[in-house]
Design a protein that fits this description.
Length: 311
C-alpha cells in the first residue's frame, strides 16, 4: 500500500498563491520589472547616454529611443530602468533594516510582557505621534552631511570609484533614515503575534523542558511567525519606495547625477503641459510596481493565512 506524502505549509501556500490569478500575475510582473531594471541598462538593447545630447532633446519615441528622450537628450527608457534600480534598492534595504528592528523590538515586548511591554509600546505610541515625513527629511539631511565626510575614505581607502562613492553616499543615508523610522508597525504586528503564540501548548512544553528564553523566542516562536512577517514585508516595500519617491520629488532624497523614479517625476512635472510623456512613462512604471507589490502582499496574506482571508 502506497502512502501519500502530505504537503508542507509552504507547498500549500504556493498552491493557494497560484490559484490567486491577480497575485500570481503581480509576482511575474514584479520579476519582469526587477530583471529589466538590473539587466537591460547594461545591454545594447537600451542606449546608455548619462551625459545626454542637447541636440537630441525631447526626441519622440522611435526605434532608437523607444520612449523618446528627456530634456537634455538622455534615453527615457534607460533613465527609467536606472532610476528603478535605486528606487527598488532603497525600498528593499530600508525594509530589511526596519524588519530587523521591528521584529526584535516587538518580539521582546510581546515575550517579556508586563511593565517591559507597557514601556516599550508606549515609546512606539509616542513615535507614532511624531510627523514621519518631517522626521525623515531632518534625519536624511543630518545623516547625509555625516556620510559626505566619509567620501575621502570611500575613494582613497576603499578604492571605490567616484561615481560609486557618490551613489553610496546618496543611497545609504536614505535607507538608514527610512528604515530607522519605519519599524513601528512591524513591532506592533510581531508583538501581537508573540503575545498569542506564547500561550500555546508547545511553548508551555518548551518552558517545562527548561529551554532558555532566547531559545524559546528565536527558535520556537519567531519561526512560526514568518508568514505574517513576509506578508507585511511585501506591503512595506511599496510604502518605502513611495517615501523615497516623495523625498526625491521634494529634492531631499536621491541627488543628481543619480536618478530615481521620484527625481524623474519631479523633472517631468516641469514639462507636464508641453512634454507630458516625460511624466507619463515613469508614472506608469512606478504605479505598476506599487500595485504589483500590494496585490502580491494581499495574495501572500490569503495564501499563508487562509482563515484570516475568510474572516
Amino acid at each position: 500500500m502506497k502512502i501519500e506524502q502530505g504537503n508542507s505549509l509552504w507547498s500549500d501556500a504556493w498552491l493557494r498563491l497560484k490559484k490567486n490569478r491577480l497575485a500570481f500575475i503581480s509576482l511575474w510582473t514584479l520579476l519582469i520589472i526587477i530583471l529589466a531594471c538590473f539587466i537591460l541598462p547594461s545591454t545594447s538593447l537600451v542606449e546608455a547616454n548619462p551625459n545626454g545630447n542637447l541636440s537630441n532633446a525631447f526626441a519622440p519615441p522611435s526605434s532608437k529611443h523607444i520612449l523618446g528622450t528627456d530634456q537634455i537628450g538622455r534615453d527615457l527608457l534607460w533613465r527609467i530602468l536606472k532610476g528603478g534600480q535605486i528606487s527598488l534598492l532603497v525600498g528593499l534595504i530600508a525594509t530589511i533594516i526596519s524588519i530587523l528592528i521591528g521584529v526584535s523590538y516587538g518580539a521582546i515586548a510581546g515575550y517579556k510582557g508586563g511593565k517591559t511591554d507597557a514601556v516599550l509600546m508606549r515609546i512606539v505610541d509616542i513615535l507614532y505621534g511624531l510627523p514621519f515625513l518631517i522626521l525623515v527629511i531632518l534625519f536624511s539631511i543630518v545623516i547625509t552631511d555625516i556620510s559626505k565626510q566619509a567620501k575621502p575614505f570611500l575613494i582613497e581607502d576603499l578604492k571605490l570609484s567616484k561615481n560609486f562613492a557618490e551613489l553610496v553616499i546618496n543611497i545609504i543615508p536614505l535607507c538608514l533614515t527610512i528604515g530607522l523610522l519605519g519599524w513601528y508597525t512591524m513591532a506592533r504586528v510581531v508583538r501581537s503575534q508573540v503575545l498569542s503564540s506564547k500561550k500555546l501548548e508547545y511553548i508551555e512544553a518548551a518552558v517545562s523542558l527548561g529551554l532558555s528564553h532566547k531559545n524559546i523566542l528565536f527558535k520556537q516562536i519567531l519561526p512560526n511567525q514568518l508568514g505574517p512577517i513576509i506578508v507585511y514585508t511585501t506591503l512595506t516595500i511599496p510604502g518605502f519606495i513611495l517615501t523615497e519617491a516623495t523625498l526625491s520629488f521634494l529634492g531631499v532624497g536621491v541627488q543628481p547625477p543619480n536618478s530615481s523614479w521620484g527625481i524623474m517625476l519631479n523633472e517631468g512635472a516641469n514639462y507636464m503641459e508641453t512634454k507630458p510623456l516625460l511624466i507619463i512613462f515613469p508614472s506608469v512604471v512606478f504605479a505598476i510596481t506599487l500595485l504589483a507589490l500590494n496585490f502580491l502582499g494581499d495574495g501572500l496574506r490569503d495564501a499563508l493565512d487562509p482563515k484570516a482571508s475568510k474572516d
